[in-house]
Design a protein that fits this description.
heterodimer; A: 115 residues; mainly beta; 12 strands; 0% helix; globular; B: 116 residues
């Protein structure tokens, strides 16, 4: 079935370091791909998304490119800040019957950025 | 707009008790969802609704019930609480228009439930 595999955490970086969180997926058809972020004590919020192959989603300095050939959607940021400390979830949107879709999430990667 | 609101924020239940987790959205979204989040396991879909009066099961519906009498509200009911239902529960909503699965889901702040 459809699934998402993302990099095991936790990931600990120093401020201004480069970040990569790997995400690969298995899906039939052409899913949309998402990165959601969960800050401590809060619900998830959309960070970025891409809806077709070779699309690049970007927001707040984060980027991810939809790579159909490698079934990947890796999250990157050139220079992380302490405020980026959070849990990051990769997700894909799959059909759930009729014209309905639902999200399948990865297990999440905890990022801690130290000053 | 308040977005998606959930009550209560925290709750402790005894085994066998029942309770309702409330969820309200003010964005006029037609789709609403309930997830549970267990440590290190990501989010699992419990139930979802595509509009008032229409609900369907997700991956882990056992032990839960839902209803959707209005566009705004989507309560989740636990009838006989069990320790396995200890989790953080998130409600979400989306437009899900266009039938292409590209829509953003908007999440509430969550309810942390402990069953002892």
């Amino acid at each position: 079935g459809d699934s998402v595999t993302q990099m095991e955490g936790p990931v600990t970086l120093s401020e201004e370091a480069f970040l990569t969180i790997n995400c690969t997926y298995t899906a039939t058809g052409y899913p949309s791909l998402f990165w959601y972020v969960q800050y401590p004590g809060e619900g998830l919020q959309l960070l970025l998304k891409a809806t077709k192959a070779d699309d690049k989603g970007s927001n707040k300095g984060f980027e991810a490119t939809y790579r159909k050939e490698t079934t990947s959607f890796h999250l990157e940021k050139g220079s992380v800040q302490v405020s980026d400390s959070a849990v990051y979830f990769c997700a894909l949107s799959v059909p759930s019957g009729g014209s309905n879709y639902k999200l399948t999430f990865g297990k999440g990667t905890l990022l801690t950025v130290n000053p | 707009n308040a977005g998606v609101t959930q009550t209560p924020k925290f709750r402790i239940l005894k085994i066998g008790q029942s309770m309702t987790l409330q969820c309200t959205q003010d964005m006029n979204h037609n789709y609403m969802y309930w997830y549970r989040q267990d440590p290190g396991m990501g989010l699992k879909l419990i139930y979802y609704s595509v509009g008032a009066g229409i609900t369907d099961k997700g991956e882990v519906p056992n032990g839960y019930n839902v209803s959707r009498s209005t566009t705004e509200d989507f309560p989740l009911r636990l009838e006989l609480a069990a320790p396995s239902q200890t989790s953080v529960y998130f409600c979400a909503s989306s437009n899900n228009g266009g039938g292409r699965g590209t829509d953003t889901q908007y999440f509430g702040p969550g309810t942390r439930l402990t069953v002892l």
